[in-house]
Write a structure and sequence with these properties.
The structure holds two protein chains of two kinds. By secondary structure, chain A is mainly α. Chain A is about 40% helix and about 0% strand. The chains are: A mainly alpha, B alpha+beta.
């Protein structure tokens, strides 16, 4: 009898262990491997910026990135909102430059791999993106000719060594821009086409230098990557590469029932797309319709891929050429952010709507309808334990 | 006599043990069955999804006017990258369809959204082959691509499923 029960117990244990032992199915293992940082391909050259991989350009770009002189009142630089010791973001619900903006600063790890820039994708290259805050009255609030004059006065020699001779500045107004105040716009319109083109070229080169620097900002391996590597090679995860039961449950939910991986896919945990996920608007901010309003902006940008300041040939412009221009799902659609490092940089969403990952997970489980347009998210039953597990997993992407 | 009785007892004992053996085998089989069922149950949604849409790369159009073939130009599908595919159109009788006007739409039926890009026919390569550029599959799952085809032979539509 005793032997019988022993063997019975052993059989049951073997079956239970057999089901639970390989913690992940082959399909799950494949998905986990596709998220690991070692599958991130080498950064592709940017043919639209022939200085993208020129070290002197990146060095100048780095100087400009941290230079508060690159603003109207000399107090704001790129690094004001993209703080080097804070994943190149600022921990604020909405960025504050010269004034308070209506969007959350984005972190910069892996930014050179994005096809679209800003939360709504209103720019189509890293160098065109870098130019936009410089003239935004709420960010760096400068103007185009002032930046060109500043480059000549402060960095003339460095600039010319990289980009060639600066233009003739005689007769170029101190303050002029097609986007500035009435006086700046009038001054810009009074300039000749040749002068405007010469200033635009200097301005584009500022963006190209900053972009060259930003290409060096890449995501670093995390606990998740060490875990995923061990899972892929069959090695026993050691030290912090071992996941707790809760973290494993969170990972399984992330790639399974909770459907997070649908959009947060690949080694950067983003599909680089735009989605309406029903994130509520912020009460005191101006109306914000996301991607649908960005389409016209990127098309009108003189520094876009079809514009005169692109290097290389037009074959690099596929994203702009095949962009979706009018579809109902563009309404209140925002870019899928990377989740690497997200756990240590609240608040979340395009205007800092949620102050913790718990709130984010609750939002996605509840799937409230969008105030405008249609949310792509479907409601999901998640227990308290499952919600906590998802958050625990997300933390492994920031350790 | 004594030894015979002992034999009977022993035989009876053996009989009891064999009943237990059957019980054990039964329980073992039941447990095995439960395990198999669990595996089937756990993997069912995936295999159902895979078995779902028809992923044939060559199809008759909806009204039978054309035979369409839709394949990635480089042979493999790479998630998250702009790709070009080739749509080859033949008539019922196998003649190449030239000068067709082709409109492309699609999306992910399970996710409430259309295509993330606007693919277009960018070139006619001869022999009924049309190059379609600007396709981008940003996520794994079930994608649909609809083609509205118009030529001298008439107008027709065809839907291709792509599962990544």
């Amino acid at each position: 009898m005793r032997r019988l029960f022993c063997s019975l117990a052993l059989t049951v244990a073997a079956i239970v262990a057999g089901c639970g032992k390989p913690d992940f199915s082959d399909a799950e293992k494949k998905t986990i491997a596709s998220l690991a940082l070692n599958t991130l391909p080498p950064l592709k050259p940017d043919t639209t910026n022939r200085f993208a991989d020129v070290p002197a350009a990146a060095a100048l770009g780095s100087t400009l990135f941290f230079d508060a002189g690159m603003s109207r009142d000399g107090t704001v630089s790129c690094s004001t909102c993209h703080k080097i010791d804070r994943q190149f973001q600022d921990d604020l619900p909405q960025a504050v430059g010269v004034g308070r903006t209506n969007r959350r600063s984005m972190p910069l790890a892996g930014v050179a791999r994005d096809p679209w820039f800003f939360w709504d994708g209103r720019r189509d290259s890293l160098w065109a993106q870098a130019l936009t805050p410089l003239e935004n009255p709420l960010e760096q609030a400068g103007n185009r000719t002032a930046y060109a004059h500043y480059m000549k006065a402060r960095f003339g020699e460095r600039y010319e060594r990289i980009f060639g001779p600066l233009p003739d500045f005689s007769g170029i107004p101190q303050n002029a821009s097609p986007l500035g105040t009435d006086a700046e716009r009038a001054a810009w319109n009074a300039m000749s086409d040749t002068q405007r083109d010469a200033i635009n070229r200097v301005y584009a080169n500022i963006g190209k230098a900053i972009a060259a620097f930003e290409r060096s900002i890449e995501p670093a391996p995390t606990r998740f990557d060490r875990f995923a590597l061990d899972l892929a090679t069959g090695a026993e995860p050691k030290g912090d590469a071992a996941f707790s039961r809760e973290e494993i449950l969170g990972l399984k939910l992330f790639i399974g029932k909770a459907n997070c991986v649908t959009c947060h896919n690949g080694p950067r945990f983003t599909d680089n797309g735009f989605h309406n996920t029903g994130v509520p608007p912020v009460a005191d901010l101006p109306p914000d319709r996301g991607r649908v309003d960005a389409v016209a902006q990127v098309e009108a940008d003189p520094f876009n891929c079809f514009g005169a300041y692109r290097d290389g040939d037009v074959s690099a412009c596929g994203e702009l050429r095949f962009m979706v221009k009018d579809a109902p799902e563009l309404v209140r659609a925002y870019k899928t952010p990377s989740l690497r490092g997200a756990a240590t940089r609240p608040p979340y969403m395009h205007a800092g709507q949620f102050s913790s990952l718990d709130e984010v997970v609750v939002h996605y489980a509840k799937a409230a309808p969008s105030v405008e347009g249609t949310s792509e998210i479907h409601p999901l039953e998640l227990s308290d334990r499952e919600r906590a597990a998802l958050v625990a997993f997300l933390k492994t992407l920031a350790e | 006599m004594r030894s015979a009785r002992r034999n009977v007892v022993r035989r009876r004992g053996t009989g009891l043990a064999s009943i237990w053996r059957y019980v054990l085998a039964g329980v073992g089989l039941a447990a095995l069955l439960a395990g198999v069922l669990a595996i089937v149950y756990l993997t069912a949604p995936q295999s159902a999804q895979l078995a779902g849409p028809d992923v044939a790369r060559t199809k008759k159009t909806d009204n039978g006017l054309y035979v369409a073939n839709f394949v990635p130009e480089r042979g493999v599908v790479r998630q998250g990258e702009l790709e070009s595919w080739l749509l080859t159109l033949k008539t019922k009788t196998g003649d190449a369809v030239e000068g067709a006007a082709i409109a492309i739409s699609g999306g992910m039926p399970q996710h409430n959204h259309g295509l993330p890009t606007s693919p277009q026919v960018t070139d006619y390569l001869g022999e009924g082959r049309y190059r379609i550029e600007g396709l981008k599959f940003t996520m794994s799952g079930w994608w649909q691509l609809r083609f509205a085809i118009s030529s001298g032979a008439g107008s027709d539509t065809v839907l291709f499923n792509v599962v990544l």
